Amino acid sequence: MITLKSPREIEEMAKSGAILAGMHIGLREIIKPGISSWEIEKFARKYFKEHGAIAEQIGFEGYKYATCVSVNDEICHGFPRKNLILRDGDLIKVDTVVNYHGAMSDSCWSYVVGKSTPEIDRLMEVTKKALYLGIEQAQVGNRIGDIGAAIQHYTEDVNGYGDVREFIGHGIGPTMHESPNVPHYGEAGKGVRLREGMTITIEPMINMGGWEAEMDDPNGWTARTADGSLSCQYEHTIAITKQGPKILTSQDPILDAPYLYEF
């Protein structure tokens, strides 16, 4: 069932999103060569506790961690690990969901550890732009397919990357995963029509190689690129409003100015 949120509920989700965005901004100073991915988990747990929020992922279908920390060819749902030491040039994705007094927000951000490369920079730039191209389509009266078609055309047709099919965005609030599904591929003009008050995530996962994924058998959670290529992801939680899409997890008021939710 799709739940439509009131202005008050969206405002509470934006407060949750501001906490989540603040955690991601803080990670910019934490992530560096030589730390373990577990340090990211520790930082997130501490940050959420200090801001009166709950790490909603802990306990979700048996998941044990506040964050997913996916490294290089890991597409999503990577475990934070004490024995995984980050190295110069690693591409990592940090995904987490925050519950603030019952209001949910969900965001993933990509970071390069230490010194980057032109190839990694381009993958990150294309993936982030794909996110915003999807957000542009999240207008009242448009359809879910308009979001996916914009992302798929830009990432695959224009840039030759692989647009992951197996993992998609979703509705959010008051629970973590709700209808509608929000694929990052598809056909314009198809799918559920977007209505005022819907809150969804848009979270393209883009591979440097092919789009295919495979599961990491030992833990049953982590997905990797089937061809071993690097994968990148950016995700925002947004609200569908009469004034256009509004980002509830913004980290950059200048970049997000056309879509900024103010409260």
TrEMBL record:
- Cofactor(s) of this protein: Co(2+); Zn(2+); Mn(2+); Fe(2+)
TM regions (residue ranges): none
Q: Which Pfam family name is an example for this entry?
A: Peptidase_M24
Q: Which keywords has UniProt assigned to this entry?
A: Aminopeptidase, Hydrolase, Metal-binding, Protease
Give yes or no: UniProt keyword Metal-binding: yes
Q: Where does substrate bind?
A: H77, H177
| GO terms of molecular function | initiator methionyl aminopeptidase activity; metal ion binding; metalloaminopeptidase activity
Q: What is a single cellular component term in the Gene Ontology annotation?
A: cytosol
CDD domains recorded: MetAP1
What does the entry's cofactor note say about binding and number?
Answer: Binds 2 divalent metal cations per subunit. Has a high-affinity and a low affinity metal-binding site. The true nature of the physiological cofactor is under debate. The enzyme is active with cobalt, zinc, manganese or divalent iron ions. Most likely, methionine aminopeptidases function as mononuclear Fe(2+)-metalloproteases under physiological conditions, and the catalytically relevant metal-binding site has been assigned to the histidine-containing high-affinity site.
This enzyme catalyses:
Release of N-terminal amino acids, preferentially methionine, from peptides and arylamides
Instruction: Summarize where a divalent metal cation 2 binds, as residue positions.
Output: D106, H170, E203, E235
Instruction: Name the EC number(s).
Output: 3.4.11.18
Please, one GO biological process term? proteolysis
Chain positions recorded as a divalent metal cation 1 binding sites: D95, D106, E235
The family assignment reads: Belongs to the peptidase M24A family. Methionine aminopeptidase type 1 subfamily.
What do we know about how this protein assembles, alone or with others?
Answer: Monomer.
Q: What does this protein do?
A: Removes the N-terminal methionine from nascent proteins. The N-terminal methionine is often cleaved when the second residue in the primary sequence is small and uncharged (Met-Ala-, Cys, Gly, Pro, Ser, Thr, or Val). Requires deformylation of the N(alpha)-formylated initiator methionine before it can be hydrolyzed.
Q: What is this protein called?
A: Methionine aminopeptidase
